[in-house]
Amino acid sequence: MVTKQYDKIFSRIVKSKQIHESVLFIQNRNGDFSYKNEYGGKSIDAPLLMASITKLFTTTCILILLEQGKLSLDDKVTRFFDNGKLNGLHLYKGQEYTAKLTIAHLLFQTSGLPDVSEEGKNNLRKRVLHEDMNITIDELIALTKKMKPLFAPNTMNRSHYADINFYILGQIIESVANSSLEGVFTSFIFEPLGLEKTYLVIDEDDFIPSIYFKNNALSLPKYIKSCRASGGAITTAREMMVFIKAFFGGDLFNKEIFRELEKYMKLQISFYPIQYGGGYMRIPLGGFTMFFIGKGELIGHSGSTGSFAFYYPEKDLFFVGDVNQSANPATAVRMAIRLAVSSK
């Protein structure tokens, strides 16, 4: 019966004129229940852009380095940057907070920094719709300095989703591990899990799937290569399933560490009903959520291109997939919610 519900939900999603391809893969922890559905030639072994699900890779690396004793969540961010590069990054109501920013503020999205990817009249998302571009971490920091922070770090009892937080975390990982980010991803995640089709884009010649915006298939090799720790990884639904099980199953780091991450705050209203914890999203299902009533929660991450990877502890189910539509990435979140609610 539940597979019929999954069929119905998937069919409803792909009937949209904006959905040109989609893939859905569902399993329980031990894999004795498995369901997949594919549309538009997108199989569970086809490459897909993880987009912001890449942040789970970045979070994994931070947690492993934390477990190794090489950093602390309370470490000041400026410790990892030379020559005052970050000076003026967080100037709020005339007061400089940059020196007070910690790794925890970045990981929990409580830094108060603005999001140059999505905010402002000429944000990066709008610009790349017209022209593919490279952008460096120094350029991202400079753009962020031109915008106003939303609040002082760890105040207002809320979080504000901003890609710059994870761009900076990527730089910190490279500094602490004394390795390139792709090297750290490989040694900490890809090799231990046997992920052979998952990689961080490091060259414009690396294969990068097209990204749909409405009916337009965009090729953005320069921009995706620039996204790195915030959104630059490629995988398949099958390998994303392996990773999300490992992430929440304690196969990559001590599962007890999650107790430090289970502090959730509401994101800006455009992300409703999503909350943010230590490097991952939480969607509460215990009340009215997107017009559905369910039990428990979804934890994981979604991406701005319609990718998603969530764990539903209430039924011990994992949902991964992609709808590949950057004009309406909330479609993926709504599908994940419907799947969870229908999992009787």
Automatic annotation (TrEMBL):
Lineage top rank: taxon: Bacteria
EC number in record: 3.1.1.103
GO molecular function terms listed in the Swiss-Prot or TrEMBL record: hydrolase activity
InterPro entries reported in the protein's UniProt record: Beta-lactam-related, Beta-lactam/transpept-like, Diverse_Enzym_Activities
Domain called Beta-lactamase-related: residue spans: 45-337
Broadest EC class assigned to this enzyme: hydrolase
The entry's keywords: Hydrolase
Protein name stated in the entry: Serine hydrolase domain-containing protein
Organism in which the protein naturally occurs: Sporosarcina thermotolerans
